[in-house]
From TrEMBL:
Protein's name according to its UniProt entry: Uncharacterized protein
One Pfam assignment: Thioredoxin_7
Taxonomic source organism: Luteibacter rhizovicinus DSM 16549
GO biological process terms held by the UniProt record: cell redox homeostasis
Domain of life: Bacteria
Entry's Gene Ontology molecular function annotations: protein-disulfide reductase activity
Gene3D superfamilies: Glutaredoxin
Length: 433
């Protein structure tokens, strides 16, 4: 998404949003769940995750949350902590936030992806905890000929980012089930979603564009921005006229989506940011510059109106405003806002890092470095590497290569084993001596 990512150091900073007391590790949470015969609900999140801000302040609180906590073992998994990142890889989690329910016996009960309004979230959790969403249960029902269960199995594979595995399972169904399955709209749509995942895994733009177009023709609700984003990306290499012909038919449906589910008093879909950015990207791709700026300014104005000048009132909304200003290239407004965000949220590394990074990317190395150094004091785990990467770029540009090499060596020594890919990119940041 635009969007999708140590342990001891985490306790030295205040979390980006309200923390919940709980087990020290996911292994401990699973052991507790087994011991107490309770399901474990894992919240995969991160300090920089804007959707996680939304969930913490708007959903994971109140009476419904208090009632839920009595029934489960809750664990917050931090994408920047090595042990939790390893669990993300094990469970094939690619999207933050992702909520994974695991039964006392260790079987996954199901998962929920992305931010959700509370009126959607709690019924979904209840459905997971009932056990009916278990993949093994869904498969048993599907083999009996239930097309609803066939669709549920395919949707579960899609949530787990297992496109090839899902289609391979479908091919094992009795022919009498497979032959009639495409007559069911939900099954047909679920299959196209898996084909879209396969195309993305294979980096096959033609397959992505074909599947995404078919998925967008269905009733996909709040997933529309993500799928349209896939289509926009897959058509990027097409000639302008061809690309416009591919994308223009999507604009009426997406405008309707914005007007009925996003730009309303009570949005049906919680992820406003993805909707706005995808709308702007769509307009840019089809050459509608005025439309691109209009949707961004509308989002900017609405965000400011809802914040009432108080950036602490809703961090998700405040961070959305920042991103809209970045996308609109509103430099002066953005400079003012980012300094206000640093003041409003001083306890973590995020806004010092983002402002320092932007200054470095614009060639203002001396100005950006102090902000990155401030961020480094509060960074931990994987985000230590992110901060170090831009500190190294700034130091190198300022002819301070000895300091840069020392920073790379220190960071690699501390984080290299847990995050080898990120540290390799960090090492590549500094030219060889």
């Amino acid at each position: 998404m635009k969007r999708l990512l140590a342990a001891a150091l985490l306790t030295l900073i205040a979390p980006a949003y309200a923390a919940h007391e709980g087990p020290a590790s996911l292994d401990a949470a699973l052991a507790q769940g087994k011991r107490e015969h309770k399901p474990v609900l894992v919240d995969f999140q991160a300090v920089w995750c804007y959707s996680c801000y939304y969930m913490a302040s708007h959903v994971l609180n109140g009476k419904e949350w208090n009632d839920l906590e009595k029934k489960i073992v809750f664990y917050e998994a931090d994408a920047d902590k090595p042990a939790d990142k390893a669990w993300m890889n094990k469970l094939n989690v690619h999207f933050l936030p992702t909520y994974v329910a695991i039964g006392p016996d260790g079987e996954e009960l199901g998962r929920i992806l992305a931010e959700q309004p509370r009126e959607k979230f709690y019924p979904q959790v209840a459905a997971l905890l009932s056990g009916d969403a278990r993949l093994s249960h869904q498969k048993d029902e599907a083999v009996k000929g239930s097309l609803a269960s066939v669709a549920e199995v395919l949707d579960t594979y899609q949530q787990r980012y297992q496109g090839k595995e899902g289609m391979a399972w479908f091919d094992t169904l009795p022919s009498m089930v497979r032959n009639v399955s495409d007559q069911d709209k939900r099954v047909a749509l679920a299959k196209q979603k898996l084909l879209l995942l396969e195309g993305k895994a294979d980096k096959n733009d033609a397959a992505i564009a074909s599947a995404a177009t078919k998925v967008l023709a269905g009733n996909i609700g709040c997933d529309r921005p993500y799928v349209l984003d896939d289509l926009i990306g897959a058509t990027a290499a097409q000639p302008p006229a061809t690309r416009q012909a591919s994308l223009s038919p999507q604009k009426p449906a997406f405008d309707e989506y914005l007007s009925t589910q996003i730009f309303v008093a009570s949005p049906t879909c919680a992820d406003q940011r993805s909707a706005v950015l995808t709308a702007a990207d769509l307009d840019a791709a089809i050459g509608d510059t005025a439309g691109e700026q209009a949707v961004l300014r509308k989002a900017i104005d609405l965000s400011r109106e809802k914040l009432h000048g108080d950036l602490k009132s809703d961090r998700n909304l405040a961070d959305n405003l920042r991103v809209y200003l970045v996308r609109a290239k509103a430099g002066d407004e953005l400079d003012t806002l980012e300094k206000q965000l640093i003041a409003a949220y001083p306890s973590d590394y995020v806004y010092n890092y983002r402002y320092g990074r932007r200054l470095v990317e614009s060639g203002k190395f001396a100005e950006g470095l102090p902000y990155l150094e401030a961020a480094a004091k509060k960074a931990y785990g994987a985000n230590t590497i992110s901060v170090a990467t831009y500190r190294v770029k700034a130091l190198h540009a300022l002819n301070r290569d000895a300091e840069a090499r020392k920073l790379v060596a220190t960071t690699v020594a501390a984080q290299g084993a847990a995050f080898p890919e990120q540290t390799k990119k960090l090492q590549e940041t500094l030219p060889s001596a």
